[in-house]
Amino acid sequence: MFSHVTVGTNSLERALAFYEPLMAELGLICKFREAHWVGWMQPGVDRPLFMINLPYDDNPATIGNGQMVAFVAKTRDSVDRFHALAVRQGGTCEGPPGLRPQYHADYYGAYVRDPDGNKLCICCHEPTIRATHKEID
User: Fold this and answer.
1) pLDDT band for position 130 (cuts 50, 70, 90)
2) Which of these, 4, 40, 91, 134, could form a disulfide with 49 (CB 3.0-4.6 Å)?
3) Are 38 and 16 contacting, i.e. CB atoms less than 8 angstroms apart?
4) What is the pLDDT of residue 123?
5) Strand 49-53, strand 4-8: pairing
6) Which H helix or E strand runs over 18?
């Protein structure tokens, strides 16, 4: 559905120090790294991309109220690790990991802000345990 999502930063090096371990936690790889921007992708897939960049017009990056980037995690444990890692990397907690049944019964998510104030969500839509059915002869 998306080509790419970009969040602005006022310090690319600070943003890299924050985002590189988070992208690694999600299994995303760096597609490019240039003087003013960096982009990550899923291995073997060109899009969508998540990118951080210094603003093109050289004005300060600012955050918007109500804007957020949400990443998908494969497991609830990954949500927990991503959130803890984000806070250790200088992010601030905007909502600890946990179920959010107001979204749907299996929605498990957490919220942080990066060092520039951009709001991030990490969420898992999978149930804790998947039932398997085996036929008995």
Assistant:
1) low
2) 4
3) yes
4) 95
5) parallel
6) helix 12-25
Q: Where are the domains of the chain?
A: 4-124
CB–CB of 74/92 below 8 Å?
A: no
pLDDT digits (tens, 9 = 90+) for 59-110: 999 887 778 999 999 999 999 999 999 999 999 999 999 999 999 999 999 9
| Residue (of 69, 63, 67, 65) closest to 123 by Cα position | 69
The per-residue pLDDT for 53 is 94
Phi-psi region of 61 (alpha: psi -120 to 50; beta: other; left: phi over 0): beta
pTM score, whole prediction = 0.81
Q: Would you state the pLDDT for residue 98?
A: 98
Measured CA to CA, the distance from residue 38 to residue 20 in angstroms comes to: 10
Element (H, E) at 4: strand 4-8
Q: How far is CA 14 from CA 72, 91, 103, 115, in A?
A: 23, 11, 33, 8
CATH number of the domain located at residue range(s) 4-124 in this protein: 3.10.180.10
